[in-house]
Task: structure prediction
Amino acid sequence: TNEALLITIVVCGPPIILSMIVGLSISLFQAVTQLQEQTLTFVPKMVIIFGSLAALGPWLGGVMLTFAELCFERFPEVVF
Result:
């Protein structure tokens, strides 16, 4: 269970961190220019999230595959 939570944090971390950085920078831009457009924050965040998932997809998939193999290999130890 502990390793599953750690894997979840590792897999979800990069897109969330990038989204937070983009959101903060856009919020600062909106505060400085006094633009209050809702789509101005939504569209760049979606682009960054999908781009980061596309770029990091093979690595994230490898991490999840390794964890799944580990779970299936240790399953008999847990059951018996």
